[in-house]
Design a protein that fits this description.
Radius of gyration: 13 Å
Number of domains: 1
CATH superfamily: Response regulator
Distance between the termini: 20 Å
Order of helices and strands: EHEHEHEHEH
CATH topology: Rossmann fold
């Protein structure tokens, strides 16, 4: 059986942590969820991931970028996506600087997210 792509999903909203990971798993991904920056960083140090999907504002405004930075330092080839309910020009520019692979606005269209992930994983 082929290895399933591993996703680290970071969001401080329990409802989103309960709904999105099972949907991603139905599409063949293996998902670990984290509810804080510290939890995410610990998981990044402990396991390898193919994809990081992080909320932009986990505990504080913009700290999803701290998660992306930690992933880039430890696992530079990991695909990184930022989710946000409050898109803004400045955060989009920060995302570009950190070489974030995608900047997704909530509510997430799951089909679009899945096809984007598959495309990016194929390109790697």
């Amino acid at each position: 059986m082929p290895r399933r792509n591993r996703i680290l999903f970071v969001d401080d909203e329990p409802s989103i942590r309960l709904t999105l990971p099972p949907i991603l798993e139905q599409h063949g991904f293996q998902v670990e969820a984290a509810g804080s920056v510290a939890e995410a960083v610990a998981q990044i140090k402990a396991s390898r991931f193919d994809v990081l999907i992080s909320d932009l504002n986990v505990e504080e405004s913009g700290d999803g970028f701290r998660v992306v930075r930690a992933m880039r330092e430890t696992q530079p080839h990991c695909i990184a996506l930022i989710l946000t309910g409050h898109p803004g020009f400045e955060t989009a520019v920060d995302a570009l600087r950190l070489r974030v692979d995608d900047y997704v606005v909530k509510p997430v269209d799951v089909e679009t997210l899945i096809s984007s992930l598959r495309k990016k994983l194929k390109e790697k």
